[in-house]
Every structure is written in structure tokens, then in C-alpha cells.
Amino acid sequence: MAKLWAGRFEKPTSELLDDFQSSIPFDRRLIRCDLLGSIAHATMLGEQGILPDADSKAIVEGLNGILADYDAGRLTIDDHAEDVHMFTETELTNRIGEAGKRLHTGRSRNDQVALDMRMYARDACLTVDGLLRALLDTLTALAKKHTHTVMSGYTHLQKAQPVTLAFHLMAYFQMFKRDVNRFRLAYGEADVMPLGSGALAGTTYPLNRERVAELLHFSDVTDNAMDGVSDRDFALSFLSAAAICMMHLSRFCEELVLWSSAEFGTAVMDDAFATGSSIMPQKKNPDACELTRGKTGRVYGDLMALLTVMKGLPLAYNKDMQEDKEAFFDAYDTLCKCLPTFTAMLASVTFNAEAMAKSAAMGFTNATDLADYLVGKGVPFRDAHHVSGTLVGKCVKEHRELSDLSLEELRQASPVFDGDVYEAISLKVCVERRSLRGGPAPKTVEASIHRAETWLETMRNQTTR
Hints:
By secondary structure, this protein is mainly alpha-helical.
């Protein structure tokens, strides 16, 4: 096939180069964006008198026909085309004749692909936003059921202090809430219309860039043509948000893997989201968690790939930037698989409240509360910390818990101990007394859940476009 740009060349490109530089196998997914962008461009060209009205209308009608065929699954995309932009223009010309050759007036493939990628990125951000909010709904629903489910909190993977499962779940709510905000920021970065930048220096045609932005629902237009065609920060912002989101999923998955092990025994994976072993009949493997954890690495790789592509590029457009698409598409596809699978899996997990409470009762998670009890009796915290540590050491040697110590034994460590100490170090009281905002007390967590649900409702009511 003759290239649309072949006028300057005396011989055709090598088949090796054609295959090497062809992007149609992956950028074909941009075809809706390309067609919609071209429809807006042709409409504007007609309104501005840059194209005869008849040509503009013929182009728009032809592009709408291609779009309708694509949406209906009737469009055959030529795998030998150089890219999706060349394919749509060639297809248009084949359908409507000479008028189709006028579509490219006042634009370059440089600003055309920048437009398509920004449109695609906006849609991707909206899709991920919806998937994240579904996960957040699941987290709040689960948290409501477990505001009184006491479990051990950990630092260094060592038992630290008693908390509740709801408190733990709402920690992840905060992570994924930040992810929602990051993808909305990425949407804002993509929501700037670059068409009219030309190859790098704009055009002499009297384009109405604001009209194209209006037709395509962009909130602004780019302010520098050179940056307009060479910027991929919006894609990097999406990939960065995707990498951080996958990191959050991976952390949660790691905990679910641990909790579902026999050593913890505090969570049971639903059969629908677990697999067995080909040799060991007893196995129930948390594959959904493990695969999500593994896929985090590929999204990190997508981010690093595009950062590396962009790091040494002089202004303006360079062919290297064709590498933005596969990284972006892969990260987006991975998120679109991981998020709904994880959400459904999490909703199906059975949490063993009894095992959690039993585990929290062991390991001296109330040692800090024992020290706080002494502080309440006038003992300086540093001295109280030492007394509590000494009693923990005694219990470790004797294989006992703090609540097992008699009042006489406690008073040997400090004479201020009294009978009310046992209530003070009960797990229920330990949790309930941590009632400052941000703490695990049931009423505090319930208020946190209410704020979370209010925020989610606000997000639902907001229209990004």
C-alpha cells in the first residue's frame, strides 16, 4: 500500500521497517477516539470555511458511517496499515472519494495521536474510577459488619495492639480513596485538547481550537504547540496512579494470603476464588490474591518503561513515543482485571472473628494499656513502660498472659496496681478507650465509615465531564 506521505520518497520502505514500525496491532483500540476526533476536526473546518461545506459534511457523514460499522462489528481493520490514523483516512477516502483527502487539513499525526491518547486516557480514568468506587463500597459494607470484631494489629509483622477488623479494613479504604483522587487528577491532566498544535509549531489555517475542545468535551486547550505534541505526562500520571493502586491491592492480597494460612486461620477464601493442587488433595490456594500480587510487577514495569522512553527525548515529537501505548494499555487492562476480581473475592471472604479475638488475646497486645494504666495512677510513662516490659518478660518466661498475673504479682512490680487493672487491660476496653478520631474504638470507626459513605455519595453525584 502506498503511504500517504510517500511523495518525498523514491522507493518504498522495507518490509522489515513496515513491520517494525507498524502500530496498528495495538493502536487499533484508539479507533473510536480517532474517528470522534476527526469528526470534530472536520466539523470545525467546515464552520471556519477552511473546507467547502459540502466536503465537510461528506467527511463527517463518511466518518460516522465508519464509526457505525465499527460499533456494529462490521468494520474490517487492515492489519497492514501503518497505524490507526492512516487506516481511518484511507478508509474514508475509499468511501467518499477526493473529499476524504481534505480531512487532514490543518493537523499532523503528531497532534492527532496526542488527541486520541488524551481521549482514551480520560475514558480509562473514568472506568477505573468506577471500579475503585465499587471496591470502596465493598470495604464500607464489610467494615459495618465488623466494628466489634477484635483482632491484633501488627508492626514488623509482630503483634502490637488490639484493633478491630473494621478499623483494619478502613485503613485500606483510605488508600483506595487516595487512588480515586489520583485518577481524577490524571483525568484533569488528560483533559486538555492538543489538536491544532500541528507537527510542533501550530498551523497557518484559522482553526477554532476552542470549538474542537467544545465538541469533544475538553475543559481546555494546550497553550504551547511544541509541548502539546511531545507531552506524555498525562499518561505517566495514569501509570503512576495505576502502579500505586496495584501496590495497595498487593499489600491487601499479602495480608489475605497470610490470614488464610493455617498459621493465622483468621480468613477463609471462598471456593469460587481459590484453586487446588494437582498433587496435594488438601490444598486450597489463594490464587486470586497471589496473581494480583504478581501482576503488580508488570504495572510497575509499564510505568518504568514509559519513564525510560521519555527521559532523553529532545523536543518535540519522536518516534520513540509510539511506545507509550502498549505500556498504557497493559496497565489499564491489568487494572480492569484485578480490581473487579479482587472486589468480588473480598466480598466473599469469611472472617473468623473467634480466631481473631483469640489471637489478639495472646502476644501481649495490651502491654501499652498496662503502661497507660500506671500513668493514670501517676507513674511517669518511661517508668510505666519499664514496669510493663518487665511483666511481659516474666510472662514470656512462664508462658502466661498479663491478665493471668495475680494482683500480688503485679504489685511486686509496682505498688499502685489495684483490682481495676484487669478491666483496664481487657481487649474490649483497650479498643474502646482509643476513641480519638482515627482510632479503632467502634463508635470512632462507625463515624469514619459514615464519613466514607458521605464522600462516596459525593463522588457519585459529581460529574467529571
